[in-house]
Write a structure and sequence with these properties.
- With 401 residues, this protein is of the alpha/beta class.
- It has 2 domains: 178 residues, Endonuclease, Chain A (2-Layer Sandwich); 165 residues, Endonuclease Chain A (Endonuclease, Chain A, 2-Layer Sandwich).
- It has 14 helices and 18 strands.
- The strands form 3 sheets. It has an 8-stranded mixed β-sheet, with helices on both faces. The protein has an 8-stranded mixed β-sheet with strand order 10-17-16-15-11-12-13-18, sandwiched between helices.
- Strand 1 and strand 2 form a beta hairpin.
- The longest helix is centred in the first third of the chain and has 27 residues.
């Protein structure tokens, strides 16, 4: 038995190594990309104004404008922060506001930015309150599975009135070359984003650098913020998806960068399709993580057999994490549909009940699917045997992704 496990493990390593080599060769041949996109108007949802973004440069321009207009406080949290033109532009604008007396708090994940030069991470203006998040602060933390979670959140809050949340990290790559989705909220719902940032900061900050200011929160049945908290073992985003899928009556339009669902979520999607719901799943045909692609492909046969439409986005890396159901319920956020996001990392998603906003989400999905690879059950069944074998070898990795 040990020999068998050893052989399987070696095969997994060989398969992964070959795929990584293929990915590296493929990346060398990459050229400047373009992809279809649309401009959407701001919509009113209750007391809040919502603006969808599907192009990074447009988002970054508005984020920087919000930073420039800050009067009191800026909270910025990003999973990845690149050492490039966009990364430096954000640093300079934040430093300028800090010099003006605005309280500026910044969080980024230390592990996710290991490849970012130390000089960049060490050169933030000293007037900026900076946290390089890491879970492992004591030796015994290495024996606590909860401590292996990353801070995968991407939010900006300005003066408790303007908030941004979504899939975009900070960097030039994301400005023009990746297709992602972000949301700006202006109004009282932003207080929830601010509180989420403050709670995270105060839990992990070093010394007495705590945030004491709190914005007044207001219950809003139309906009709800859900956050996965690894340390407290609470993961409501997955449950939010499952509940929306189970309640669907007409359509489910789901876009996700890494589709590696657990069996409950997958069964919910399959059951929806089998009861006549139009279920469409849009994923990157080639993502930035080739191993995640191949693990994800292992789910496609079940999906197609159940009647789910599987669509492959082929223009560039699709990094969005969104869903809209029945033209009235939508979510935009940071959580992928994989194990790391569902029951691992710190994540945030906004849940929105609005027909007008859902119509925009549907229009965005229609734009994204105007030129895609749509799988058929027959074609997928007859894919090469070596592809099937590779997917089978890597299948156990789905529990780690």
């Amino acid at each position: 038995m040990r020999i068998l496990f050893g052989v399987v493990f070696v095969l997994q390593l060989i398969t992964a190594a070959v795929l990584l080599i293929v990915a590296r060769l493929r990346n060398r041949r990459q050229q400047k990309v373009s992809f279809p996109r649309i401009c959407l108007d701001e919509v009113q949802v209750g007391e809040n104004s919502l603006q969808l973004y599907c192009y990074g440069r447009d988002l970054f321009d508005d984020m920087l404008a919000a930073i420039d207009g800050a009067q009191e406080r800026i909270y910025l949290e990003s999973y990845i922060w690149k050492d490039d033109d966009v990364g430096w532009e954000f640093k300079k604008r934040l430093a300028k506001k800090a010099a003006e007396g605005v309280e500026v708090y910044v969080i980024f994940d230390r592990f996710a930015n290991l490849v970012v030069p130390h000089a960049f991470k060490a050169s933030f203006d000293p007037r900026i309150h900076l946290m390089q998040y890491q879970s492992f602060r004591r030796f015994w933390h290495f024996f606590d599975p909860r401590r292996y979670s990353l801070d995968h959140r991407k939010i900006l809050v300005v003066d408790g009135q303007i908030g941004f949340i979504g899939g975009y990290n900070i960097g030039s790559l994301y400005s023009t070359s990746w297709r992602d989705t972000h949301l700006r909220i202006i109004g009282p719902a932003v207080a929830d984003l601010a509180h989420s940032f403050v709670d995270f900061w105060n839990r992990f900050c070093v010394g007495d650098d705590c945030i004491t200011h709190h914005y007044m929160r207001k219950i809003d049945p139309l906009i709800t913020l859900w956050g996965n908290d690894a340390l407290h073992l609470t993961f409501p985003i997955r449950d939010m998806y499952i509940e929306a899928i189970n309640r669907a009556e007409h359509s489910i339009l789901l876009t996700n960068a890494y589709f590696v669902p657990d069996h409950v979520l997958l069964d919910a999607l399959k059951a929806a399709a089998q009861r006549g719901i139009d279920v469409r799943i849009l994923v990157p045909w080639r993502s930035n993580h080739i191993l995640a692609d191949w693990v994800s492909h292992g789910y496609f046969s079940e999906c197609l057999q159940a009647g789910i439409h599987v669509l492959g986005y082929r223009h560039t890396m699709l990094h969005a994490k969104t869903c809209t159901v029945d033209g009235q319920w939508s979510t935009v956020g940071t959580a992928n549909l994989d194990r790391l996001s569902s029951i691992g990392n710190y994540e945030l998603n906004v849940e929105v009940y609005s027909r007008e906003f859902a119509q925009q989400m549907e229009a965005l999905f229609k734009c994204d699917t105007s030129d895609v690879v749509e799988l058929t059950h027959d074609e997928w069944t007859h894919r090469p045997s070596y592809v099937k074998l590779s997917e089978h070898i890597l299948a156990p990795w789905r529990f780690m992704m």
